[in-house]
Amino acid sequence: MWCLNKMCTSEARLDGKTVVITGASDGIGKETARDLYARGARVILACRDMEKTNKAVEDIKNKPPLRINKDEYKKNAGELAIYFLDLCSLKSVRDCAKNLLTNEAAIHVLINNAGVAAYPYEKTENGNETTFQVNHLGHFLLTLLLLPKMQLSSPSCRIINVSSITYIFADIDFDDINLERTYASFKSYTQSKLANILFTKELARRLKGANIHGINVYSLHPGFISTRVSRYASSTIFPCATLCYNMFAQLMYKNAEQGAQTTIYCAVDEEVANETGLYYSNCRVATTYRKANNHEYPEKLWNVSCRLLHLEPEEDFTTFLETVSRQML
Asked: pTM for the complete prediction?
């Protein structure tokens, strides 16, 4: 409803900053890119559909956010760039990271936004359940690969993981992480969204433990938005599920621009610059519930994620990041 659509009011500029956004070719990812581009950032759209992403770039360049007039927009906007990223392929994740590390002088903000929902059961070329790899594991690997560059780019770097309030329905079966025995599309999605929050908490803890400062981590619920993320629901949940979801989203009055506001808030707001490991909704810190508060889950998820990537979760975080980086060679 309209009263829940809080907008990011920060006027912070991002001149000289580089932002990477996954899945920025449409939906809240594209609206996030539009806003941060308007603030002067070099915004990198990391996506798998190049034709669609090129069209998104043209749309962003020619259509400012509602709060900005067109002349001001063109005068003060930043830069836009496209990198290929297919989260269904861990090789693609490593290749994208390698290209970013080679070609970009710095990375100040990483927004892990891409995702799928209600996806039919399928495994990626890496043998992982698709929703889990796209929504969590691919972003987990991308983040680890980009962290050394972000260390060099700090202070004031931020990593933002777009989750969903549906995490409250989730649990994680660490012995059946790919849901081979008990797959359901909604279960898979909620598990991956819980994983986004747990990853945020554990990464913040490990950064602090390694005495790595200047990189803060956030997770968030964007709201219920009518986007392409629900496009498989009618075939995997029940007939007309996509239509029902989109009607519900419209009743909740959040379009893509409104849905991007909490992501933007976490990326730019001055008040959250010293917060890390927290979960946000409607441009403010929100309380987490149920399995998101299980103190054992963040580390258990970290260890399982490392195992799926054929990594050893070493205690020394700096050594661990060096090991991860060698995977690109």
From this structure: 0.92
Angstrom CA distances, 321 to 28, 65, 103, stand at 30, 38, 20
Dist. CA 321–CA 206, nearest whole Å = 11
Segment 129-167, tens digit of pLDDT = 999 999 999 999 999 999 999 999 989 999 999 999 999
d(CA 226, CA 231): 10
- Whole-angstrom distance, CA of residue 33 vs CA of residue 42: 9
The neighbouring-strand residues paired with 161 are: 112, 219
Of 65, 66, 75, 8, the residue nearest 40 (C-alpha) = 75
- Please tell me the distance from the alpha carbon of residue 100 to that of residue 121, in angstroms, as a whole number: 31
CA pair distance 72, 85, nearest whole angstrom? 32
Active site residues: 189
Task: Evaluate whether 20 touches 107 at the Cβ level (below 8 Å).
Answer: yes
